[in-house]
């Protein structure tokens, strides 16, 4: 009974939209003959593929150039300086990148031959206007290649369905559409960060509405077109997979292309242009956040999965360029890196979550630098002494009354010594004074209070004695850091459109003229910058994108972060932001930390 369902959908659409089927008759495009694949160029010319070559045709179909290659999987993108085309050389098993300018077609770059049976291939242009290429193997194993920078680099491997008939990316939506033979059409996040979310847009029964086989895809301004290769029909869907009012009821569609406002369909008689009706406008999207790129990154941590968590910065007293990034691997211990990202030390101190550093702590017997981290197995604070050269030494534990210790931050009160805030996933926050005792350290509980739900990130502004606490699903609070103060906590910024849950790492930038609070807005992989003083004005937000030239991937899903306004030299003359990166790419691997120049952030947000 497969025909029946289709017929019902058809009748239903006709009742709703009596004009839908009376659209203008398709126009035949004789210049495209019976070429298996075609792409329309913005100036009216064509790129076409036949068994022997890729050919550039002018508007009248006269050949302007060709490349003798048995090509498949043609896809194109319009760039500011011409057209980028990708094809797969079926003889050499090699993806080729071609460029078309006003005069000619030429081979630009070639990727290494693939060592798998390629099923499908398509281009993607990301929000930073960097080009990518998806290579999809028969068994569903896929690779995403970054085409920017001096040579193409593999951004990541990913898993897609087996038997992909066709793939196409929708750049405006950062979506990758793939049609899975015998099953349906999926939409994946095309962005290389994160675990690709997917949605089934069109399913073969019993998973969805169609009876046939989803095949070739084309991206339209208002949705996608899919050949149902059982009967050669073409379904037009919106971006969420709903049938559009206009449907094409063809008998033998074999290939698709989009041109201007037409859907081009190859059937038994040649290429036909079908005028698309309704809703062809691309929806205006909200202004995207500015993007900065990392200038450096650390080596990857030695544990896979979500392992790297929270950084701190130790500033070398004489030579800031020899400063250290001290960071936690929550499956292994404490790490130390130099400003080039090289790992200098690993202290296997167990499941450390957050870490903070204070320097020149005035103790009765002299000054010292300490790092303090939350130790989750022991529900304790792990104390580390930092030598004058940055060398770290495990200096013992301070017990707490918490069960599930999580975030922590340090406070140097005006009277000297060191205080620490440690929080529990249940919302409790304990405030201790750290005391030096023979052979180690101990904590004296000053007070305990709580927020309503899980906190983690926190930071103290020592200059003004203010504690900021992130309540992950709720927002950022400010309150006095001094145990004796009685002012009520103030909500600095609630979770919302700009600060998207979870609120994660918090850090303070104390610049020449102004101090800023930086927060990890983990839910949308961005960073929010606020004035560190009331009324905590919003200064903007940014994302961290791909540094193609340096081969550093973008940053997403950040847990902890730390910032310093110290002049570290080089790119970091105005200071340095260190962020945990949830997904290491270029290539994929264990997590690491990225180094961002404050200068780049200040420029992106127009900060003084
Ligand atoms: Ca994480
Ligand atoms: Ca930290
Ligand atoms: Ca968290
Ligand atoms: Ca990343």
Per DSSP E runs of 2 or more residues, the count of β-strands stands at: 48
Radius of gyration: 29 Å
| Major sheet size, sense and barrel closure | 5 strands, mixed
Number of helices: 2
- Average pLDDT confidence is 93
| Low-confidence regions | 1-22
Distance between the termini: 69 Å
What share of residues are in beta strands?
over 45%
State the helical fraction: under 10%
Oligomeric status: single chain
For the largest sheet, list the strands in their spatial order.
24-45-44-43-42
Molecular structure report:
With 608 residues, this protein is mainly beta. Strand 18 (214-220) and strand 19 form a beta hairpin. A five-stranded mixed β-sheet has the order 24-45-44-43-42, with helices on one face. The chain has a four-stranded antiparallel β-sheet with strand order 1-23-22-21, with no helix packed on it. The protein has a four-stranded antiparallel β-sheet with strand order 2-3-4-5, with no helix packed on it. The radius of gyration is 29 Å and the shape is elongated. The protein contains two helices and 48 strands. Mean pLDDT is 93; it is low at 1-22. 4% of the residues lie in helices and 51% in strands. Residues 456, 472, 502, 504 line the site of one calcium ion.
């Amino acid at each position: 009974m497969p025909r029946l369902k289709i017929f019902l959908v058809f009748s239903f659409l006709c009742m709703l939209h009596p004009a839908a089927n009376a659209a203008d008759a398709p126009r035949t495009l004789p210049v495209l003959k019976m070429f298996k694949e075609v792409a329309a160029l913005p100036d009216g010319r064509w790129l076409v593929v036949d068994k022997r070559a890729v050919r550039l045709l002018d508007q009248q179909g006269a050949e302007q150039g060709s490349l003798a290659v048995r090509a498949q999987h043609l896809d194109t993108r319009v760039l500011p300086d011409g057209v980028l085309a990708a094809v797969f050389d079926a003889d050499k098993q090699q993806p080729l990148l071609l460029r078309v300018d006003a005069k000619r077609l030429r081979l630009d770059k070639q990727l290494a031959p693939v060592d798998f049976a390629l099923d499908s291939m398509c281009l993607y242009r990301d929000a930073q206007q960097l080009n990518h290429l998806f290579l999809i193997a028969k068994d569903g194993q896929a690779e995403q290649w970054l085409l920017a920078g001096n040579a193409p680099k593999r951004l990541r491997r990913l898993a897609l369905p087996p038997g992909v008939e066709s793939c196409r990316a929708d750049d405006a939506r950062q979506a990758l559409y793939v049609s899975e033979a015998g099953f349906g059409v999926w939409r994946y996040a095309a962005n290389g960060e994160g675990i690709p979310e997917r949605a089934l847009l069109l399913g073969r029964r019993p998973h969805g509405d169609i009876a046939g086989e989803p095949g070739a895809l084309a991206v339209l301004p208002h949705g996608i077109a899919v050949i149902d290769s059982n009967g050669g029909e073409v379904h037009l869907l919106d971006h969420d997979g709903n049938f559009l009012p206009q449907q094409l009821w063809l008998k033998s569609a074999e290939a698709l292309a989009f041109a201007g406002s037409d859907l081009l369909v190859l059937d038994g008689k040649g290429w036909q242009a079908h005028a698309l009706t309704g809703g062809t406008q691309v929806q205006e999207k909200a202004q995207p956040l500015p993007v900065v790129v990392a200038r450096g990154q650390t080596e990857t941590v030695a544990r896979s999965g979500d392992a790297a968590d929270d950084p701190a910065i130790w500033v070398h007293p004489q030579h800031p360029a020899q400063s250290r990034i001290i960071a936690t691997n929550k499956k292994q211990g404490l790490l130390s890196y130099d400003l080039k990202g090289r790992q200098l030390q690993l202290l296997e101190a167990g499941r450390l979550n957050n870490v903070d550093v204070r320097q020149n702590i005035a103790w009765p017997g002299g000054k010292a630098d300490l790092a303090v981290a939350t130790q989750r197995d022991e529900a304790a604070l792990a104390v580390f002494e930092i030598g004058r050269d940055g060398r770290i030494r495990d200096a013992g534990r301070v017990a707490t009354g918490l069960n599930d210790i999580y975030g922590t931050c340090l406070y140097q009160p005006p009277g000297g010594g060191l205080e620490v805030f440690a929080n529990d996933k249940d919302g409790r926050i304990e405030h201790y004074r750290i005391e030096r005792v023979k052979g180690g350290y101990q904590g004296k509980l000053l007070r305990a209070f709580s927020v309503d739900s899980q906190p983690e990130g926190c930071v103290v502004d020592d200059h003004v004695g203010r504690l900021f606490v992130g309540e992950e699903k709720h927002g950022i609070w400010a309150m006095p850091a001094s145990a004796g103060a009685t002012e009520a906590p103030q909500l600095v910024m609630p979770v919302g459109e700009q600060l998207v849950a979870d609120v994660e790492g918090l850090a303070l930038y104390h610049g020449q003229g102004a101090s800023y609070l930086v927060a990890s807005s983990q839910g949308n992989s961005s960073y929010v910058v606020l004035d560190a003083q009331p009324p905590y004005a919003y200064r903007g937000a940014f994302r961290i994108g791909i540094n193609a030239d340096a081969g550093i991937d973008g940053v997403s899903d950040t847990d902890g972060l730390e910032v310093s306004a110290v002049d570290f030299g080089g790119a970091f003359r105005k200071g340095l932001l260190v962020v945990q990166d949830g997904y290491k790419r270029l290539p994929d691997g264990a997590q690491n930390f990225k180094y961002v120049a404050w200068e780049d952030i200040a420029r992106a947000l127009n900060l003084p």
